């Protein structure tokens, strides 16, 4: 099947999550991604278990589940870039590449002759993407950056978690390395933009992606509330600073989410709840009024929502086009009929495990959709094939 990025060669020198997430996105869209890994160890996340990928007999392998989340559709070659021979081989591969992605510390590849300036001189068409914690410039540039650290420094943890007056209050990170994932997506977008420029001018360029930059930019309405409204957003648990009601509510058998975005939806909710009078109450009739009188309204809603089960509420509210839903565990997510219908769970053949489950790309293209060609590779499994395809070296007998 034709893919959007057929013929694109990507040399992936990145590790852990942000860089591999970017290159997996490109690989899903058809790029030939060659992952350069340390001999004997590979990407750090291969060792980030348990849980471990199991072989066909159910025994643990040396590859963690974490590694599998961001490395499908890639080919692995083991190269020791600390040696002159390894450096020379990477330079040869970079000479054939369209894109190179790396997440070494600032200046870390210069000693090996694998920095942007060195490789741009060798291959002026190369799009070179560097991903670091703090970027290539500024007083923090030399520092190492990790997702958890950046969630704190970049403000995300100041708006995530229970409010200061609640029991258990305090800064809280998101349950996944979201800053890494967002940085990987921004890197993929930047790479595609740079390739468009390269196709017009023949010139590659250097992309400078910083986790901190991405985290600050991704605060969206919270940064606008601060920069425009002059407020310092605070932690509000599952509540929303600008919309009410837009949070979790208790039911007779658990919890549900109400995501009411306009006054019409609120009025319909009130009718279903048996309290139509709330919608005409001046304190609650508009979203601005509901935000102002949040402390009065939310307890009233909670008293009403506990009277029915989650399933009963969802059935009643969906019939009136009121946005709502359950709070699912991951086993419930993958059993959800919508998730099943969209084909979000996939499986790919693996030479050791037999099959590796994964999650489909959310990018849906009508003419050139993502194609799932291969499971995350065994360390170094494709070395000979890569050298043959990229450098024309003969395959060993």
In short:
Keywords: Transferase. Pfam families: CoA_transf_3. The chain is an alpha/beta fold.
Description of the structure:
The protein is 36% helix and 16% strand. It is of the alpha/beta class and 397 residues long. The chain folds into two domains: 9-218 and 340-391, Crotonobetainyl-coa:carnitine coa-transferase, domain 1 (Rossmann fold), CATH 3.40.50; 246-250 and 255-326, formyl-coa transferase, domain 3 (2-Layer Sandwich). Strand 3 and strand 4 (60-64) form a beta hairpin. Helix 1 (18-28) packs across helix 6 and helix 6 crosses helix 7. The mean pLDDT is 96.
> What is the CA-atom radius of gyration, in angstroms?
25 Å
The overall strand count is 13
Model regions low in confidence, pLDDT < 50 over at least 5 residues:
none
Total separate domains: 2
Question: Can you give the mean pLDDT?
Answer: 96
The H-level CATH homologous superfamily of the largest domain, spelled out, is Crotonobetainyl-coa:carnitine coa-transferase, domain 1
Protein name: L-carnitine dehydratase/bile acid-inducible protein F
GO molecular function: CoA-transferase activity
Organism: Sphaerotilus natans subsp. natans DSM 6575
Pfam families: CoA_transf_3
Helix and strand topology:
Layout: E1 9-13, H1 18-28, E2 32-37, E3 52-54, E4 60-64, H2 65-68, E5 74-78, H3 84-96, E6 99-102, H4 116-122, E7 127-132, H5 147-153, H6 178-201, E8 206-210, H7 211-217, H8 221-229, E9 246-250, E10 255-259, H9 263-273, H10 277-280, H11 287-292, H12 294-305, H13 310-318, E11 324-326, H14 330-335, H15 337-341, E12 345-350, E13 354-359, H16 383-391
Parallel strand pairs: 1-2, 1-6, 2-5, 6-7, 7-8
Antiparallel strand pairs: 3-4, 9-10, 10-11, 12-13
Helix pairs in contact: 1-6, 6-7
């Amino acid at each position: 099947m034709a893919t959007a990025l057929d013929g694109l060669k990507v040399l992936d020198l990145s590790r852990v999550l942000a860089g591999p997430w970017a290159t997996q996105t490109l690989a899903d869209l058809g790029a030939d991604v060659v992952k350069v890994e340390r001999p004997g160890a590979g990407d750090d996340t291969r060792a980030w278990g348990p849980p471990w990928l199991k072989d066909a007999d159910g025994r643990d392998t040396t590859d963690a589940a974490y590694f599998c989340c961001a490395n499908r559709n890639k080919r692995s070659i083991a190269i020791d870039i600390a040696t002159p021979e390894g450096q020379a081989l990477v330079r040869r591969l970079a000479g054939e590449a369209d894109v190179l992605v790396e997440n070494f510390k600032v200046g870390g590849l210069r000693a090996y002759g694998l920095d942007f300036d060195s490789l741009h001189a060798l291959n002026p068409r190369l799009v070179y993407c560097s991903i670091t914690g703090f970027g290539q410039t500024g007083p923090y540039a030399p520092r190492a950056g990790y997702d958890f650290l950046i969630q704190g420094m970049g403000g995300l943890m100041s708006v995530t978690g229970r409010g200061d007056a609640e029991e258990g209050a305090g800064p809280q990170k998101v349950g996944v390395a979201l800053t890494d994932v967002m940085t990987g997506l921004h890197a993929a977008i930047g790479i595609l933009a740079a390739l468009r420029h390269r196709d017009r001018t023949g010139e590659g360029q250097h992309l400078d992606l910083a986790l901190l930059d991405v985290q600050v930019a991704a605060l969206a309405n919270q940064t606008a509330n601060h920069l425009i409204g002059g407020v310092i957003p605070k932690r509000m648990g599952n509540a929303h600073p600008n919309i009410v009601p837009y949070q979790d509510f208790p039911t007779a058998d658990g919890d549900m989410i109400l995501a009411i975005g306009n006054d019409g939806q609120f009025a319909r909710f009130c009718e279903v709840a048996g309290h139509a009078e709330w919608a005409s109450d001046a304190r609650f009739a508009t979203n601005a009024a509901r935000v102002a009188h949040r402390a009065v309204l939310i307890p009233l809603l909670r008293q009403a929502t506990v009277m029915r089960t989650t399933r009963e509420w969802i059935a009643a509210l969906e019939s009136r086009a009121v946005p709502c839903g359950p709070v699912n565990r991951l086993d419930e997510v993958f059993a959800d009929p919508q998730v099943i219908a969209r084909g979000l769970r996939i499986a790919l053949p693996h030479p050791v495990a037999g099959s590796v489950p994964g999650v489909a790309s959310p990018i849906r293209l009508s003419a050139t959709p993502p194609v799932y060609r291969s499971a995350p590779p065994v360390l170094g499994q494709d070395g000979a094939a890569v050298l043959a395809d990229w450098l024309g070296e003969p395959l060993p007998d």
